Amino acid sequence: MAESAPVAAADLAAVAASAGMASATTNSPKKRRGFNWRSLLPGGRVCHVGVDISATELVCVAVRGQDADFEVLGLESVPVPQGVEPGQPEFAALLGRALSGLCLPGQIPKVWAAAQSARSNIQFLTIPKVSSRQVDNAVYWTAKKDMGFDEADVVFDFERRGEVTEKGAVRLGAMAYTTPREAISLLQNDFAQAGFPLAGLTLEPFAHQNLYRRRIVDGPAEGATANLHVGRNWSRLEIVSNGNIMFVRVIKTSMSGMEQAVYDVLESRGLAAPAQPAKAPAGAPGAAGPREEVVLDLDALSGSAEAGLVLDLDAAASPATPEPGPQGPSPQPSTGETARPLEADHARELLDAVVYGCLSVDDCHPGYGLELDDVMDMLRPVASRLVRQVEMTLKHYRESLGQDQVTRLTVSGPLGGSRLFLDFIQEHVGLPCEALDPLAGRPLPAGTTLGGRLPGALFSQALGLALSDDGHTPSAFVTYKERAAKRASRLLEQGVLVGLAAVLAGMALLSFSAMAKRQTLERERDALNQRLAGYGASLDAAALARKSEELRTKIEAMQRYASRNRIVGIWEEALALAPDGVRIGSMTTECGPPDKPLDQAAAQAAKNLKDGKDPNAPVSRLIIEGVAIGDARLFDSMLASYVVALEGSPLLEDISVKRSELEGLEGGATGLRFVLSANLTESKP
Question: What is the pTM for the complete model shown?
Fold first, then answer.
C-alpha cells in the first residue's frame, strides 16, 4: 500500500455521499438484515458479490447462481474519495453503503474481493515429475528459491497445472502466488466492520480466469486469448489457455499516464493560462496521486535472463518533455467568457470523451473546439507505447517460452468501452480485438443501463470475483495445505465408508446364507416328518436306545474281528506287491516300544516333524525276508520297485532296507538276500 494521506473535511463529506454517486442501480433505504431460511433450501441460491477495489472507485456486482445462466441482481460503481484507503473507518463505511443496496433483503451474501498490494506476486513454475504426494513439497521449495518469500509475511499458495514440456523435457507445472498477510488482514477487517464478511480473497488475474473456467467467456477454437486490463495507475496483460492463466505481465502505461499526456499537450499549447500552479492528474508522474493498486511484476514460466524481454515502461520520475501534439488551430474561448484555469479534471474529461466516444465541453473548457480525433492524436504516443509493449509480450510468450500463439485479444476496464482504442489496438497488433464484456446480452435489473460512463467491460473483474468459489478460484483463506488436509480427510471418509459398506455387504451375505441354510434344513425336516408319518407309528425313546446299544455292540465286535485279521491282510498285501523275481521267504509282525526311546525334548522335536505323532508310542512292525533271483544286474531295481510298491500301500509306512547282500543259491545261481522293515499304519475305528 502507498502512504495514506490525511482525510480532509471535504473528502469526508464526499464519503458520506459516495454511495449514491455513479451507481448503476437505484439504491433503496437500508433494511434490517435477518437470516433467510430459504437460502438453506435445496432450490434456493445464495447471493454472490464480487468487489473490485481500485484507487479511485469500488466496482461491485451481485449475482445469483454461478453457472452459465447466472442472474445479475445489481451493479454498483462508487467513487473512492482521495485519501480513503483500506484499513480506515471511512473505507469500511463506504463498503457497507455500497454493498447494502446490492444484496437481497434478509440474505447473507458470499463476498469475494481481490487483494490490493504492491508486494503480491504470481509466477508460473515447473518442477520435475514426482509422485503426487511429493508435488506440494517440490512446488514449495521451488517457489521459495525463485520467488524468495517469507511465510511469516505472506500467504503462499499454488494451483497444479499438469504436465508441460520445457526444453524437450516433460515437467509438472504450477501457478504459484503470494499475498501479504497485512493486506489480507486489512481487507478482512474492513469487510467485517462493514457487515459483509469475506468468503474468499484472491488476486485480480484469477477473477478473469473464472470467466473462462465457468465458460461465461468462450476461448478461441485454436491458440490462446490475451486480455489487456487497463487500470488507473498500471495495466496488466493476461494470457489464458484452456481456461487457465498461463502468463501475467504488468505494464506501467495506464489511464493516469494518458491523462498526463493530454494535460501536457494542453499546457504546451497554452490554451489557457493557469491562475495557479497546475496540479497534475492523480497518479501521474511527479504527482502525489492515490495509493498504488496491486502491482504483480510477474514473468510466467521464466524468471531468468533467458526470457530476453525488456518492457518499455513509462517514466516513473519527473515529467519528461511533452510529446508534440497535433498541429492545428488552437481553440479559443468564446467572446465575453473567461477561460477556466487548466486543471487535471480537464485532461480527464477529454480522455473520458475518447474512451466513451462523446465529446461535450462548454466554451470555458481549455479543450473547447477540439474534436475526438484531435484528442486521440494527443494520446497516440502513449497508446503506441502500450501497443508496443503488448506486441513484445506476445512475441516473448510465443517465441521465447514456446507457448501456443495468441489468436484473440480482449480489453477490460474503462478502456474496453472505447471503440477508438479497440480499433487502434487491433490495427497495430494485428489480432481481433474486442471488449471483455461478459454482461453483454444478459438481462439486467430494472433501471440498469450499461454504456456511456458505465461500460460493460468495467464490471468484468468484479463479475469474475462474484463467480468465485474455493473449487474454481485460488483463495488466500484456503491454501494448498488446507486443500491437502481436506483431501486426506475426504480419502479417510471414503475409506471408512467403503469399509463400512464392505462390512454391511458381508453381513448381508452371511444373513442371506444363514436364511437359505435354515430354509434348506426346514425342508429336510419336513421331508423326514413326512416319511416318519408314512410309517404310521411314533418312535419309542427306550426302543431307540436299545437299538443303538445293539448297533454299538456289533460295531465293536466287527472292529475286534478286523483287528485280529489285520495281520493276515497285511501279509497278503505284502505278497501281492512283490514284483516278478522277488521271492518272499518269511514275514514276521512285531509289536512293542520303539528301539531307541527319545528324551522329552527330542521326542517333542520329532513329534513336530512327524505331523504330531508320538515317537515313543508303541510300534507295530512288519519284517519281510526274501530273495531276488534272475539277472544280477536287475537285483537293485527289483528291490527298489518293491520298496516303492510297499510305500504306496495305505497299510504300511516308513519302509526301510535292513539288509541287502548277494549269496549263492543251489545250482550255481546268485541271488540278492534282503530284509525289509515297515511300520503298520494306525488302524482307525
Answer: 0.61
